[in-house]
Amino acid sequence: MKQYSKPVVSVDNGLAEGVYAASGAGCYTATANIHQTPQIGRGDYRIQVNGQHHSDHTKEAQTLTISFNQPVTYSSSQGTLAGATTGTTLTINYTYHQNPNDNIGLGDLVVVSDPGLSITGVSITD
Ligand SMILES: [Zn+2]
Fold first, then answer.
1. What residues sit around ligand 1, an ion, with C-beta below 5 angstroms?
2. What are the Cα distances from residue 31, in Å, to 3, 39, 118, 120?
């Protein structure tokens, strides 16, 4: 994660290899974990995204922004793609009901990419 220097990035020693955790501005702490990689060549990566909400409001909408070290093509998610289908950053809208303090799982995000994919940034805003 050395190649990515913003925003406030913390990859704690206690976290498993490949888990990207960011505590940025705002009320969400987001983590993303590539839990399935293609066996051979270009293919599907399945990514679990989780958010911890800490604030005093409830909302029904969230936006996930996730960045990668190389271009990906969006395949599927539990949300609605809001930006470009291909690139190094994807923006996806979700409509979860969130409580002031809540843990939400955004389910699997599936992207297609070449071998060597890693997550360089993740954030959730509401
Ligand atoms: Zn919030």
1. 27, 55, 126
2. 18, 24, 13, 11
Residue 71 Cα to ligand 1 middle (Å)? 29
Q: Full-prediction pTM beyond 0.85?
A: no
Ligand 1 centroid to Cα of residue 31, in Å, is 16
Q: What domains are there in the chain, each with its CATH number?
A: 19-125 (2.60.40.290)
Q: Can you give the pLDDT at residue 8?
A: 47
| d(CA 115, ligand 1 centre) in Å | 35
Mean pLDDT by 10 residues, the chain (126 residues): 47 54 76 95 96 93 97 97 97 95 93 97 95
